[in-house]
Amino acid sequence: MESPEKAGAEAKHPRKTRSRLIVLAVIIVPVLAVVGPRIWRYAAGRVEYATKAPTFSGSSDGLKQTLIVPTLDTPMPPGRNVIWCSSFQLAWNEVRDKVIGAPLAVPDAAEIAARLNAATQSVSDLDAKSVYAAGGRIKDGVRERIGKDMAAKFPSHAVPDVSAYTDGILAYSYLIAQVPFKYPFRRIEKGLAFTDSYGTQTRVTGFGLWKAYLRPFENIREQVRVLHAGRDASDSERLTECALDLCCHSTPYQIVVARVTPMGSLGKTLEYLRTQMASFEKPPYYEQDRRFGGNDELRIPEMFWRLDHRFKELIGRAVANCSPPMPIVEALQTIEFRLDRSGVVLDSDSMLAVAAAPRHFEFDRPFLVYMKKRDAEQPFLVMWVDNAELLTRR
């Protein structure tokens, strides 16, 4: 309750009270004018898409035209979507660097192990606030440490159940990146026709910018940066290649879309694109060409998917330089990705489990079977199975 003294003071000095309110209004209103619309636009955009179901959600086994690769230098087959996310590499690094202390020797999956061992991606590629990675021996409490750390750092994310792993080595990683565009792009009401590498067209939803010269779209236009624009030698109006930074204001992460020729792997394609972008930055026209012009047009497909992928080429393969050698029993990666007119959201975690060698209880040779009451000493049926005469035939 307001004190009588304070109420009396304000009653005596109404001008001072009004002055304070005016000063506060002068400070707060401009701040809300700048920050408020951006927060509102992003929140409205996320609510708008919250009710949309993903195009795909489930195991990667259900995908026929998409390949998830463990490393950037994995060969990229033609005619397929190819996805790589560093979360699995981060889990691998934990086992390689902090548990075994050497490259993992996996003789029965030597090629993929060599690629993972040689990869240079690490947690330093991400902002510390958006990534977590840990690994260790289960007997040393790594399961409990992962659960405790994740609950503290990312309390809203559910860590996969790891209670089944009671012996061996466990590594886990998680990363999340939310990149809102400062100014949402225009929605393409009728969608756009996406043509795949075989010439097949599919009508898809999309967003972008056109009639960028109009005043309402000035802010959207100015947030786009052209990173590369390769023109046709015979037709200077036609772009053969291009790359765009969709929001130059986003930090610490950048979203780049590029239309280029694939170069055999995601890594080689990135290298080629970096070369082209470096060449594009040369004067004398770079300052002009890097701006998205009033007559330029941009159209991008939306996407929203979630998938679980197991690197089956690793599962069941023994890590020879464990002591003793132990098989990889889980190599799981989960990725959720959304790209729409309001921004990008990426959520991914991975788990790598190396367990004690499994025991195979296989009665595929002569064996004994008997029945008895649990608290009795003597059985009431005993049989030695020496041959297949009484076994059920297929």
Report on this model:
The protein is α+β, with helices and mostly antiparallel strands and 394 residues long. It has helices at 4-12, 14-50, 87-100, 110-118, 142-153, 218-223, 266-280, 286-289, and strands at residues 56-59, 66-68, 81-83, 131-137, 169-180, 186-195, 201-209, 225-231, 239-245, 256-259, 298-301, 303-310, 318-319, 326-340, 343-354, 367-372, 379-385. Strands 1, 4, 5, 12, 13, 14 and 15 form a seven-stranded mixed β-sheet that branches. Strands 6-7-11 form a three-stranded antiparallel β-sheet, with no helix packed on it. The protein has a three-stranded antiparallel β-sheet with strand order 8-9-10, covered by helices on one side. It starts with a helix and ends in a 9-residue tail after the last strand. The relative contact order is 0.15. Mean pLDDT is 87; it is low at 1-12.
Question: What's the arrangement of secondary structure elements?
Answer:
Layout: H1 4-12, H2 14-50, E1 56-59, E2 66-68, E3 81-83, H3 87-100, H4 110-118, E4 131-137, H5 142-153, E5 169-180, E6 186-195, E7 201-209, H6 218-223, E8 225-231, E9 239-245, E10 256-259, H7 266-280, H8 286-289, E11 298-301, E12 303-310, E13 318-319, E14 326-340, E15 343-354, E16 367-372, E17 379-385
Parallel strand pairs: 1-12, 2-3
Antiparallel strand pairs: 4-5, 5-15, 6-7, 7-11, 8-9, 9-10, 12-14, 13-14, 14-15, 16-17
Notable features of this structure?
single chain, alpha+beta, elongated, 7-stranded mixed beta sheet, 17 strands, 394 residues, 3-stranded antiparallel beta sheet, disordered N terminus, 27% helix, 8 helices
